[in-house]
Amino acid sequence: MISYKKINLMGLSINCNELFYDRHEPSLIIKSPIIIATKDKDGLILKINNYSDNHGIFMNVCGYINTLYNLKKIDTNIIINNTIIIKNTDSSKFFDENKNNISFSKLKDTQKIVCSFNCSEGCFLISQCLLIN
Fold first, then answer.
1. Are 30 and 116 in contact (CB under 8 A)?
2. Distance (Å, whole) CA 92 – CA 124
3. Cα separations (Å) of 25 from 12, 21, 22, 66, 88?
4. Staple partner for 54: which of 5, 33, 68, 81, CB 3.0–4.6 Å?
């Protein structure tokens, strides 16, 4: 797992629809900043705070990944109207404020989170999500 702050954009590339970092296996897991997330049926919608430098850097990283996929003519659905879309999967893990494992259905409609996610075939997929008070 790597923080969005430490990602060197020039190290990112797309090969066979998978995101690679520094030519390693497509296992890059990105850690988000503390962010407000809205729950939807397929996953979470991360709301970017335009007045936060950290959110600006995070959006730049996600936007660059989106651009890489677009250059390869791979449809993406990861950035919509200044929000970042991350999808829930069967392997996604969710934790409450006390780090207890919870299910996706137990998430509130809107709340602060820190999450980690990977990217595959033009989609961001939730790896882990921790609720923040």
1. yes
2. 12
3. 11, 8, 9, 19, 22
4. 33
> Over the stretch 108-124, which tens digit does the pLDDT of each residue have?
999 999 999 999 889 99
Query: Phi and psi for 97 in degrees, rounded to 5?
Result: -60, -25
**Structure-block tokens of residue 62:** 């996600």
Q: Mean pLDDT over residues 24-47, rounded?
A: 91
Give the residue carrying structure tokens 């990112």: 12
pLDDT of res. 133: 86
Token pair recorded at residue 66: 């989106």
Candidates 65, 67, 72; CA nearest to 86 is 65
Percent of the chain surpassing pLDDT 90: 81
3-state secondary structure 84-118: EEEECCCCCEEECCCCCEECHHHCCCEEEEEEEEE
What tokens does 60 get? 């730049």
